[in-house]
Amino acid sequence: MKIIRAKDYNDLSRKAANIISAQVILKPNCVLGLATGGSPVGTYAQLVDWYNKGDLDFSEVTTVNLDEYRGLPRTHDQSYWYFMQKNLFEHVNVRPDAVHVPDGSNPDAEAACKAYDQIIHDLGGIDLQLLGIGPDGHIGFNEPADHFPLGTHCVDLTESTIEANKRFFGGNADLVPKQAYTMGVGTIMQARKVLMVANGKGKAEIIKQAFFGPVTPEVPASILQMHPDFTLVGDEEALSLI
Ligand code: PGA
């Protein structure tokens, strides 16, 4: 496990974008596992900036996103598909048929999850997986549980996740979907490289628990302690307790 201390959110975003950018330069046809949420927004903005300057080329890159709300169509402005279009895909030359997000509009959870695992399998797995971390230690939507789920599955969101995400639904928790399809912890652990971005005081306690406490499915991110190539880039606040 490598921990990189960034001065602030800008610095964190540039450092994370540098790591992703190195991956794309070293392997132009790489598979990038991508994440939504507030944490990676600056990273994506930096990648777009470098793309606009001619320093990055996504034409051979394939992407697989971590998760999607169950029941939201792609066109919904809070779907993760939409988030990715607005924050990255619309601004770079990634091929539209090379981007993958679980199909939240498919009500058949088993079929949707199986299809997603098949896509990842057919791509030969993930070269670099970008992650945020939830206040309860979730990665993707893998919430605290009594085991580490392996493949893509349907989850019930915890109260704390619904609370954390209601800011995107006009502050109304009732509007936050209650289920999601998420890549499993097994798939994340099989990524050849894992990069986590974490910023702000609100992440300090969980960062300490996840990476300096026991490895337990009660704190899903803690399993990353066992990943052979895991890098955490955090700002001063997120790393203030370690
Ligand atoms: P955030 O979410 O980046 O918006 O804090 C992280 C997560 O829930 O994984």
TrEMBL record:
A GO BP annotation: N-acetylneuraminate catabolic process
Coiled coil regions in record: none
EC number: 3.5.99.6
The entry's keywords: Carbohydrate metabolism, Hydrolase
GO terms for MF: glucosamine-6-phosphate deaminase activity; identical protein binding
Enzyme class: hydrolase
InterPro entries linked to this entry: Glc/Gal-6P_isomerase, Glucosamine6P_isomerase, Glucosamine6P_isomerase_CS, NagB/RpiA_transferase-like
Top-level taxonomic group: Bacteria
Catalytic residues, chain numbering: D67, D136, H138, E143
Glucosamine/galactosamine-6-phosphate isomerase domain location: 14-225
Pathway field: Amino-sugar metabolism; N-acetylneuraminate degradation; D-fructose 6-phosphate from N-acetylneuraminate: step 5/5
Similarity section: Belongs to the glucosamine/galactosamine-6-phosphate isomerase family. NagB subfamily.
PANTHER family, alphabetized: GLUCOSAMINE-6-PHOSPHATE ISOMERASE
The protein's name: Glucosamine-6-phosphate deaminase
Taxonomic classification: Bacteria, Bacillati, Bacillota, Clostridia, Eubacteriales
